[in-house]
Predict the 3D structure of the following.
Amino acid sequence: MKKHNFYAGPSILPQETIKSTAEAVLNFAGTGLSLLEVSHRGKEFQAVMDETTALFKELLDVPAGYEVVFLGGGASLQFCMVPFNILNKKAAYLNTGVWATKAQKEAKLFGEVVEVASSKDKNFCYIPKNYTVPADADYFHITTNNTIYGTELHKDPEVSVPLVADMSSDIFSRPIDISKYSIIYGGAQKNLAPAGVTFAIVKQDALGKVERAIPTMLDYRTHIDKGSMFNTPPCVAVFGALQTLRWLKAQGGVEEMMRRKVVKADILYSEIERNKLFKPTVTEVADRSYMNICFVMNEEYAELEKEFVEFATSKGMMGIKGHRSVGGFRASCYNALPVESVEALVAVMKEFEAKH
Ligand SMILES: *Cc1c(COP(=O)(O)O)cnc(C)c1O
């Protein structure tokens, strides 16, 4: 039976990424050695790092004055690394979920943090609007896609201070105007690579403005100066990222990913709305995520929740159980997920409806 991968992260990668990484694990770049056992200082791996950095910049149209670095520690380490490097006195945060809350908690260790708005009152099922960002904030932090709750900021907020964004789960799914940002970061395991590597797009002018001492490994300048090779990088994950970037370019880049994600999300949200058994958790249509589509049973069918997960799983729909803090179901539709998988899930939802 064909499996359809709706896991939220780590999550589906292009078949090309998986095959070429598997090949490199057996024989890396014709060296006769495995990618798992060669020096990152060798010319073969240096070429991987150089191409990954260059292609990353090319596909996101990263302007001059910005650098892209690949790090360890996950998006979670960026929650503290960002304020360590650029929070002088005050930062503003938009609280749209668990990850945004965690980011804000770390920032409080470094200065004053203003939570400009929060959607916690309704279990983060919408994106707050009509808030004011203090004009003297060093930056305004947003989480562009809320992986757990299925909300997404489809447009950059109009504010007068530089933006900082956690884009772990929607990077490379749309064009971004990077020039509005000081830092964009994310764990790569949602839409780019196997787990283990974290990306950061950093505006060089934003650095070097804080008084505090920054530990060497937590200073972005260390990694910029050494081209992400200050210490041993997560070689396999970086190699995987490169394969996904090559695939992305061949598919038509971020514009094409944007087109496809809208098609996929429309198909699935339409079925959730139509099907008598289900309803979406995010009622505000404009706030719905294209990447993580969350839905629950309608009240009168609430007792069928477990049965639907089992039914769908038995039909090859993998990873559709919702996050424990939302319940219900979550179908993650990242770049590598083909539209056929969404159609297969819709067919399973229809079949389940017919049974009840
Ligand atoms: C998964 C996720 C994180 C956590 O990433 P780690 O790499 O596990 O630290 C943070 N933010 C968002 C939006 C995520 O989806």
